[in-house]
């Protein structure tokens, strides 16, 4: 337990963290990787280059400072981060290293303002927070390894099939290389894949949603090919699309993540996706079709056009299983052929006018896609009177503030 004095000191640093938090975490990562370059085998390089990891850590540190005397308040966020950590094989021995460099970054950025008393208080607080993460992650590791077909860290999988879903999205079907069974998972969860790319010094880790329902003898991930040279994400996605072939092996972690649906509920479901944000919903909607086909499901997907629309026939065929199912496509720049598709609903954007015709106050809404898309859709839903507790969303990568 932290003393009241330590709690008061930590809370007194909140205004400073609000101003300098991202600077501190940027310095932290620079110093950490310079001293421990081997940790570049664990972290997502693209999130580092885009600054998302730095912002996410700054937000976490700030939240910890604000709620240091009631950490249970931020427990949902802690569990979400812990899921990511478990999927990346972050271990207890990493925490002392992180603590050392985080305190060092606070001193480096704040200089004389980071008094010995403040550094000591943050050292104590970090120890408590790290202990919470380590405890939660141990439970997650145990759960991942003790389930049927489960394992703890990374495991080799073989690519058994490669299917082009649209002009930019390809699905990879993966089976354990040793012939083991595939564990079950919750619809909407993701796996981390780890790859060695020729000519690169460090391993690459990427997290991809599982896009097929549980209960299969394979995992399926569906990957958007990013434009090379424009997005730092492109290194791995282009390698997967252009180099990885059937028969190749990829290291995979057990499924993780808390962006899932409650299969016990009967409330209507509304899936709102943009671009590759459709992938976790494929697992969800298939699971509903398999287990609760009578459940009310509305699925609205936004794409640039029909050529970039993934899973069109797969989604359409679900009408054979789902008895109360409405599927709609929204295309920004549809072709004349696109406009004649049975499920084409609107040219332009998914907006309040469109959503208002699909609103069901009792429904659970699931949103996933590019950040601007998510901001717009979540804002629209709230303006239409949807209870925020019924709006569920997930970021691909570190969480940021909407």
UniProtKB/TrEMBL annotation:
It comes from Peribacillus butanolivorans. Keywords: Detoxification, FAD, Flavoprotein, Heme, Iron, Metal-binding, NAD, NADP, Oxidoreductase, Oxygen transport, Transport. NCBIfam families: PRK13289.1. Residues 152-262 form the FAD-binding FR-type domain. PANTHER family: FLAVOHEMOPROTEIN. This is Flavohemoprotein. The keyword Disulfide bond does not apply. Its cofactor is FAD; heme b. GO terms for biological process: cellular response to nitrosative stress; nitric oxide catabolic process; response to toxic substance. InterPro entries: Cbr1-like_FAD-bd_dom, FAD-bd_FR_type, FNR_nucleotide-bd, Globin, Globin-like_sf, Globin/Proto, Hmp, OxRdtase_FAD/NAD-bd. The record marks 84, 394 as: Influences the redox potential of the prosthetic heme and FAD groups. In the C-terminal section; belongs to the flavoprotein pyridine nucleotide cytochrome reductase family. Consists of two distinct domains; an N-terminal heme-containing oxygen-binding domain and a C-terminal reductase domain with binding sites for FAD and NAD(P)H. Transmembrane segments: none annotated. The gene is hmp. Its EC number is 1.14.12.17. HAMAP family: Hmp (MF_01252).
């Amino acid at each position: 337990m932290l003393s009241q004095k330590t709690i008061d000191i930590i809370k007194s640093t909140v205004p400073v963290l609000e101003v300098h938090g991202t600077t501190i975490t940027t310095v932290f990562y620079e110093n950490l990787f310079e001293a421990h370059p081997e940790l570049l085998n664990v972290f997502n390089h693209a999130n580092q280059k885009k600054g998302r990891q730095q912002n996410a850590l700054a937000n976490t540190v700030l939240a910890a400072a604000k709620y240091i005397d009631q950490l249970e308040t931020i427990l949902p966020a802690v569990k979400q981060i812990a899921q990511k950590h478990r999927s990346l094989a972050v271990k207890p021995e990493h925490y002392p290293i992180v603590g050392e460099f985080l305190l060092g970054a606070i001193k480096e950025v704040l200089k004389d303002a980071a008094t010995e008393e403040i550094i000591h208080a943050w050292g104590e607080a970090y120890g408590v927070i790290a202990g919470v993460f380590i405890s939660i992650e141990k439970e997650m590791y145990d759960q991942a390894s003790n389930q049927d077909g489960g394992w703890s860290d990374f495991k080799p999988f073989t690519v058994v099939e490669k299917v082009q879903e649209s002009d930019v999205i390809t699905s990879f079907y993966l089976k354990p290389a040793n012939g083991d069974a595939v564990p079950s998972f919750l619809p909407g969860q993701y796996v981390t894949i780890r790859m060695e790319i020729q000519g690169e010094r460090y391993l690459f880790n990427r997290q991809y949603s599982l896009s097929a329902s549980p209960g299969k003898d394979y995992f399926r991930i569906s990957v958007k090919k990013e434009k090379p040279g424009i997005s730092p994400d492109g290194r791995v996605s282009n390698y997967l699309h252009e180099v990885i072939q059937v028969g190749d092996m990829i290291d995979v972690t057990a499924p993780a993540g808390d962006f899932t649906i409650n299969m016990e509920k009967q409330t209507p479901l509304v899936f709102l996706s943009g671009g590759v944000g459709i992938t976790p919903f494929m697992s969800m909607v298939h699971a509903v079709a398999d287990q609760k086909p009578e459940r009310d499901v509305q699925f609205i997907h936004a794409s640039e056009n029909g050529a970039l629309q993934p899973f069109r026939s797969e989604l359409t065929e679900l009408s054979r299983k789902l008895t109360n199912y409405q599927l709609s496509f929204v295309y920004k720049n549809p072709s004349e052929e696109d406009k004649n598709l049975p499920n084409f609903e609107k040219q332009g954007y998914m907006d309040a006018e469109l959503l208002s015709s699909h609103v069901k106050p009792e429904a659970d809404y699931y949103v996933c896609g590019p950040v601007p898309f998510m901001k717009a859709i979540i804002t629209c839903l709230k303006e239409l009177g949807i209870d925020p507790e019924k709006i569920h969303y997930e970021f691909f990568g570190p969480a940021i503030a909407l």
